[in-house]
Amino acid sequence: MRFRHPDGSTVHLAYCTNVHPAETLDGVLAQLRDHCEPVRRRLGRDRLGIGLWLAKDAARALVTDPAALRGLRCELERRGLEVVTLNGFPYEGFGAEEVKYRVYRPDWADPERLEHTAALARVLAGLLPDDVTEGSISTLPLAWRTAYDDERAETARTALCTLAERLDALEELTGRSVRVALEPEPGCVVETTRDAIAPLTAVGRDRIGICVDTCHLATSFEDPGTALDDLVRAGVPVVKSQLSAALHAEQPHLPEVREALAAFAEPRFLHQTRIATAAGLHGTDDLDEALAGDALPDTGPWRSHFHVPLHAAPAAPLTSTLPVLTSALTRLVGGRHPLTRHLEVETYTWQALPPELRPRGRAQLADGIAAELTLARDLLTDLGLKELP
């Protein structure tokens, strides 16, 4: 979906296909047919943006076979879909029964992360619509925090500098600009937007910036205005933003609240949980850890890294951090000029929701994704952006 900002620029809105994980190119093509096109039809649109997730095998198939890449581009066009952004965070296995810490491997100290991201950039340059010259890729925020020392930090910095050089060369070759965005996430080396400033300043390239995920922003209790103003002052480009909402529990000391939270503790993904206290941010790596005994103080609200559907907050006594998303979006695109032109709805946890909240079949999932995009569209038009055909 495209929108005209009051300054005349185009803002792109997509939804991320990591909600339909596939490891192969054939699986990606099936996603377009079975999921993405039905969402477009529900929205009554001739064209729908998707934030494509390509696992390592699918990416390699496309980068080593020009005919396969042309075939994917034709299939996107045939189904009324377009790609201006990729989700390069998960490397493989995102559809596994247990993902947890695996999603953070390989990290930016591993050469394979550089090679995979460079391959994605080449693929994206070949998929961008004819009238679009800039693409974006969100990626791992360097590494999970453990076993990350100064040597690995320097290796990661060198890898990002090398990536920036390759992206420069790619633009010279293709005329297409691709930028990469570190996506701060709780528990990682870069957990907050503030954590991103030093490593991105050290890279010192406009090619590498930040992806502001509003679920992660909320989980870490960051104020959107303060966070974004700090990035602007530091000269860190907001390459992309993922529109998502976290799980919020106002009174986690109450038994009924803990019972409601326990329904969201599930075995597939990590749900880092945080509380902001006078002494600073405290947290656990997963929701079940927070619920076990006194692992986490319960004297104030908890937020958990569980991407809940934008249009459907959990039932009381829980809620979502949609107000944080709304505040962030106002700062991102509500000013005289947008801070970013690439927005992506990223609720990948539909099938991890408590059983009674999960979609029953493809049709209900498509209905839910279309409802999320409709909410995002309405937020953008309320900010003065005009929806384009």
What does this structure look like?
With 389 residues, the chain is α/β, with parallel strands linked by helices. The chain has a single domain, classed as Divalent-metal-dependent TIM barrel enzymes (TIM Barrel, Alpha-Beta Barrel). It is 40% helix and 20% strand. It has twelve helices and 15 strands. An eight-stranded parallel barrel has the order 2-3-4-5-6-7-8-14, surrounded by seven helices. Helix 2 packs across helix 4 and helix 4 packs parallel to helix 5. The longest helix has 25 residues.
Key descriptive features of the protein:
40% helix, alpha/beta, 5-stranded antiparallel beta sheet, 389 residues
Any idea of the CATH class?
A: Alpha Beta
The percent range for strand residues is 15-25%
The total beta strand count reads: 15
Structural class: alpha/beta
Named CATH architecture:
Alpha-Beta Barrel
- Helix % is 40-55%
Order of helices and strands: EEHEHHEHEHEHEHHEEHEEHEEHEHE
The count of domains is 1
Strand arrangement, major sheet: 2-3-4-5-6-7-8-14
Distance between the termini: 8 Å
Number of helices: 12
Task: Name the shape in a single word.
Answer: globular
**How would you name the CATH homologous superfamily?**
Divalent-metal-dependent TIM barrel enzymes
